[in-house]
From TrEMBL:
Annotated Pfam families: DUF433
InterPro entries from the UniProt entry: DUF433, Homeodomain-like_sf, WH-like_DNA-bd_sf
Name of protein: DUF433 domain-containing protein
PANTHER family associated with the record: SLR0770 PROTEIN (PTHR34849:SF1), SSL5025 PROTEIN (PTHR34849)
Length: 106
């Protein structure tokens, strides 16, 4: 018997920081989950936006997510926290310009 998910999902230390990803791609399982669950993008739409992956890849990623729920949720939280930390350290260029424009109005 062939393990279907292992045909579609890989974990390699040198790819995607060792996070589970679509085999042969740099699309992480957590990316599929965010697109589908948080952004409401259907599996068919994900494939149309990323035509190098298959519908089977997307469903394998979602199955992997449900089999490893806590692990993937933690990875998503860590990524979101990292983004927030970067945003706090690196101010938005737009915000800087707007602040500069507001200072000039006084």
């Amino acid at each position: 018997m062939t393990a279907v998910i292992s045909e579609h999902i890989q974990i390699s230390p040198e790819i995607c920081g060792g996070k589970p990803h679509i085999a042969g791609h740099r699309i992480r399982v957590q990316d599929i989950v965010v697109w589908h669950e948080q952004m409401g993008i259907s599996p068919d739409e994900i494939v149309s936006r990323h035509p190098s992956i298959t519908l089977a890849d997307v469903y394998a990623a979602l199955a992997y997510y449900h089999d490893h729920f806590q692990e993937i949720r933690q990875q998503i939280q860590q990524s979101e926290q990292w983004v927030q930390e970067l945003q706090a350290k690196i101010p938005s260029k737009v915000e800087q310009k707007l602040k500069g424009m507001n200072l000039g109005e006084d």
